[in-house]
Design brief:
Layout lengths: L11 H15 L4 H8 L3 H8 L7 H11 L8 H9 L7 H8 L4 E6 L10 H13 L5 H17 L7 E7 H5 L5 H15 L4 E6 L13 E5 L5 E6 L4 E4 L2 H17 L3 H10 L1
Length: about 270
Amino acid sequence: MNRKDLVPESSPQAAYGARLRGLRESRQWTQEELGDRMGYSSTHISSVETGRKLSTLRFSRSADRVLGTEHTADSFEREWREVRHGSLLEGSPEYIDCERRASEIRLFEIGIIPGLLQTPEYARELARSAVNRGAIGAEQAEERVSLVAERRAALERTPAPLISVVLDESCIRRPIGEPAVMAAQLAYLVEFAQRPHTVLQVAPFEMGVRRTLNLPLYILTMADRSLMSYAESALRGNVERDNGSVVPLLAAYHQLQAEALSQAASVAAIRQL
């Protein structure tokens, strides 16, 4: 039997395949036995293990179910997302994976509409700008636009998560793309605010020092009521799970909501723009 040596360090996809093989062999399963359990042919399993075929979301979720790595820090789904969205900041794939399962999502953004609420056209303008600056390539730009659509689609799950959004006024006043792009984006914000499980507020400029947060922040409450936060620097994203660090941020977020415009006033301001 021909056995191809794997070099996990050669690429993220190679590392994915090597780990799949390692977990399979630790159970003393053949490729055919793993394939039967996952619903794939032995040839397909072999192709993924050796890196000849890219994994998919469906394949990764099936592997997690069969190999017992579902909803863990080492899940194949998470690794697949990291491989696919390699242009994202460190920590971002981990956060996005948790966001898909959170029961409550709270976020504060400055300067741009957050990805969770972006229209495809708005996201495409941001990605095109990054390509023009040489920050990312065209393929990475398409990944970012696709990710925006995936994140929005994940919000349609049942039961839907409770989502609280506070936008600094700069988010709705900063023009991105042609006027039609901004008009469609602002219209989506109004529609978003009308949903039964959402709260949308604007933190106006006149809040001044009463604005309790000076950097974008995301806070998740998971199904087991555990908390986590996510924030980005210029080079990396940071996921924080320690309550001693997250709870003060949650308190600051509640204070921000108290000082921001009400949802009705926020929607009126967006409609006026």
